[in-house]
Write a structure and sequence with these properties.
With 444 residues, the protein is of the alpha+beta class. It is 32% helix and 23% strand. It contains twelve helices and 14 strands. This is Alcohol acetyltransferase.
Length: 444
């Protein structure tokens, strides 16, 4: 079994996505991912001693967990000369507040607070770990939460989920041992050349995507916010059956279309239509290509518009979303545009667009609850220079589905609007299960 050593690995260059996130971190604007699991009592949750031991095991398997990004000059990565992080540097003990709100509200606030704390840590210190584990207890309540927060420089969403599962698994003896210098980049293993038919024809130049006006206040002054709601296993089963009957074999296009219809209902105002520019990150992590198990960024993003108008058929839009994320040309285009985006094109009067998209929709798919856990969720902390006004994060497991929305409150989006979007989302789910499919009848 390989052992950890203070001898640093041979430096190698970051690929485009980590370099992009590294440049954001250097500007004090890191992209932070937060995941968490919940336990009904401390007897069900892993002990601190277990977590401390596992943190050592994880770094022996995956030395990128104690790597330094920006090593030396430029965007190089190599393991720290000091060797792996001690468990005391990774684990944070905390007492959560539960004075009001539901357990879901407590969980949401906890994830957001931990993400914000991680953001402050990596922004203020160059020598701090890029990942943290939180153990959250309450003096009067039995419920325990375990959180994992990390800088996107270290891993993407699927990598973070793999790391969380490895952190909480009974054993990781069957997981691989990696070397930083041997891990290939996204660009080395996936064809990122743009397709010959790179430009989609017939896209309407107007109306502008929502929101087409500047935020009400500076996003740097707006409050990072999050809200999470759930769908039951029963509703998911009925929704999936309805989707299959209408030619949509997977739930992702359906969920994204439902969210789009809910946005149309809340933000169209007096207009009969609403044009949304959306992105859907797609995991390209593939261990057979030598990709890292739980670190690195192996993600591309499908980007396309969704136009909703009065009287539109829901399943027509859902099938169009399905086509967009499965078409080979669209996949090639998604791979070609991974990494940082060019500056936004100016709008009339030379005013730069405040956003380049309306929302992102990230789906980690179906996971499984770690032993003893009864809930899990995840989010990405909203930054002041995000591509869109809101982001949606989804994860499914044995007890249902968690849908999280993040935004900066008071900018282009407010809490009351997000709560209305959630209410409409659940209404659309019920109406689809009942057999309705036109926009107007779905939201009424």
């Amino acid at each position: 079994m390989p052992t950890s050593s203070a001898q640093p690995s041979r430096p190698r260059e970051c690929c485009s996505s980590p370099s992009h996130f590294l440049s954001r971190s250097r500007k004090g604007l890191p992209t932070i991912v937060a995941l968490g699991t919940a336990y009904c009592s401390s007897t069900q949750a892993p002990t601190r001693a277990f977590l401390a031991g596992r943190i050592g095991e994880l770094q022996a398997h995956f030395p990128t967990l104690y790597a330094q990004f920006g090593y030396g000059r430029g965007d190089m990565v190599a393991t720290r000369e000091e060797g792996p992080w001690s468990a005391t540097m990774i684990i944070q003990d905390d007492q959560y507040l539960a004075d009001s709100g539901t357990e879901g509200d407590v969980f949401t606030k906890l994830l957001l607070d931990e993400g914000n704390r991680m953001s402050r840590n990596v922004s203020s210190r160059d020598d701090s770990p890029l990942w943290q584990v939180g153990v959250h207890t309450h003096p009067l309540r039995p419920r325990v939460y375990i959180t994992l927060t990390l800088d996107h420089v270290l891993a993407d969403g699927h990598g973070a989920l793999n790391l969380l599962q490895a952190l909480l698994a009974p054993s990781i003896a069957d997981l691989p041992y990696e070397r930083v210098e041997d891990i290939p980049s996204f660009e080395d293993t996936v064809d990122v050349a743009p397709p010959a038919a790179a430009d989609r024809q017939g896209e309407p130049p107007s109306p502008y995507i929502w929101p087409s006006v500047p935020p009400k206040i500076m996003l740097s002054q707006a409050t990072p916010s999050a809200s999470i709601f759930s769908l039951s296993v029963k509703d998911l089963s009925l929704l999936k059956a309805a989707a299959k009957a209408h030619g949509v074999p997977t739930l992702h296009p359906v969920l994204k279309t439902i969210y789009s219809f809910a946005l149309w209902s809340v933000y169209r105002l007096d207009s009969p239509s609403l044009r949304l520019a959306s992105s859907t990150p797609r995991s390209e992590r593939n261990l057979t290509l030598g990709h890292a198990y739980c670190t690195g960024n192996y993600v591309c993003a499908h980007k396309f518009d969704i136009s909703i108008y009065e009287g539109q058929n829901f399943w027509y839009v859902a099938r169009r979303v399905l086509e967009q994320i499965t078409d080979p040309v669209d996949l090639a285009r998604a791979r070609a545009v991974s990494g940082p985006e060019p500056p936004p094109q100016p709008k009339p009067l030379g005013i730069p667009a405040p956003f380049t998209q309306s929302f992102s929709f990230s789906n980690l798919g179906l996971s499984s609850l770690p032993s003893g856990a009864d809930d899990m969720s995840w989010l990405a902390v909203p930054t002041e220079n995000g591509k869109g006004p809101m982001s949606v994060m989804v994860i499914g497991f044995e007890r249902g589905l968690r849908v999280c929305t993040t935004w900066r409150d008071g900018g282009a989006v407010e809490m009351k609007e997000v709560k209305e979007v959630e209410r409409i989302f659940n209404r659309v789910v019920r109406r689809l299960i009942e057999g309705k499919d036109l926009a107007d009848e779905l939201i009424e």
